[in-house]
């Protein structure tokens, strides 16, 4: 895990530009920082590293022949690729080096063989290539300066430095200076109605196996991996499966991390889950003053003033800070709501499985600059790597093949009224019912900012910051976030223009 910048055909002979850009990304990689050019090519790359795999010799930029690479993320099938490509051609133990050697095979679809979360830039003497993982778990931005190109892991690297046409590389996309932009991955369309003869128990069993494989895969590391645990269904499933992986490997209990205000429902539920599955559990209780003190830090690193995103980013930051005191990487439950219909508004689609399937597909494609941006920025602000096993590519493919009717269904199949109660993530709950206490498996979902107590404490924090009394309305709250962001950036308009919106292009119910 890391942060990087790359300049292509941009004059920076004294290195001041790339050093300025890289200095703004140091939080993403405190273990090592390097800048290097490529002989005979108009490329210079800078990299700050958080060592997770290949800690001893995995420094970047990485060279192979006439090519050079900087990468962010994890390639989970790197050992298989290393065996296929030939271990003798590798100079490091880094998983990122597989990207270079796959490219050098000359295969047209070489990038599709990478399994993991990643963003990278690869330079040759006459060509620059940049790409991003299927869902955009790892960030990558591109900009122009004169006739040249620049790439960076976060928007703040470009702020006020004379760049133009700044934009995010789309998820699942590859940019090639020789051939332009192409979409190498597309999220498969979701299935809608279940066939009458479908064996629901068999589908649930296969889902469970897919989840177990994804969690085991996404725990591969040379450092200890912990897990966020809010006490909600998604993080509890991930933690329970990860605990099994650690125990079966004889590595001792999983470390889990929960945050909330004193007495919040998330802290109570997380404690129960941790006791049930046997993890080494850690908690942090935050206050309104903690939120007030950290809000500018949250907004600066989040690179967004969207009120919903800021609200959920606050407890994420505290969870990341808590976890970083114990581990360098954590698992999270991100993606389950988008795959299995977990949001409250999804209930509006209970009698419209086709619309629900399409909405889930849309929301998966939109995660990169909403929830995935929040998780990446808040964890990397604390030099912590976050991993999202629900967004494993094979698991996505299987989950999208599951009919939407099995994801959101009426609690009692005998109820036919349009106003009847519904259960979100029904099949996911069924597939993992044995992992957790029954009442927690069927616990009604609460948003992270609600269950953690953030919403009420945030009101108090906003009053502290504004000196106001009474309730701070949503409009004033949003305005305050924009004010804070404008104070932190030289070109706040550029930052605000890149922000995603929760309901943009939502499929009508």
Percent of residues in helices comes to: 25-40%
| Secondary structural class | alpha+beta
**Largest sheet geometry:** 6 strands, antiparallel
Q: Tell me, what's the shape?
A: globular
Oligomer category: single chain
Tell me the CATH topology of the largest domain. Rossmann fold
Measured between the Cα atoms of the first and last residue, the distance is: 39 Å
Q: Please, how many helices?
A: 18
Number of domains: 2
Major sheet: order of its strands? 2-3-1-9-8-10
What is the averaged pLDDT score?
Answer: 93
Which ranges are low-confidence, i.e. pLDDT below 50, for 5 or more consecutive residues?
415-419
The CATH C-level class name of the largest domain:
Alpha Beta
Radius of gyration: 23 Å
Strand content: 15-25%
Q: Write the CATH architecture name of the largest domain.
A: 3-Layer(aba) Sandwich
CATH superfamily heading of the largest domain: HUPs
Count of distinct strands: 19
Describe the structure using short key phrases.
509 residues; alpha+beta; Glutamine Phosphoribosylpyrophosphate, subunit 1, domain 1; Rossmann fold; 2 domains; six-stranded antiparallel β-sheet; 18 helices; globular
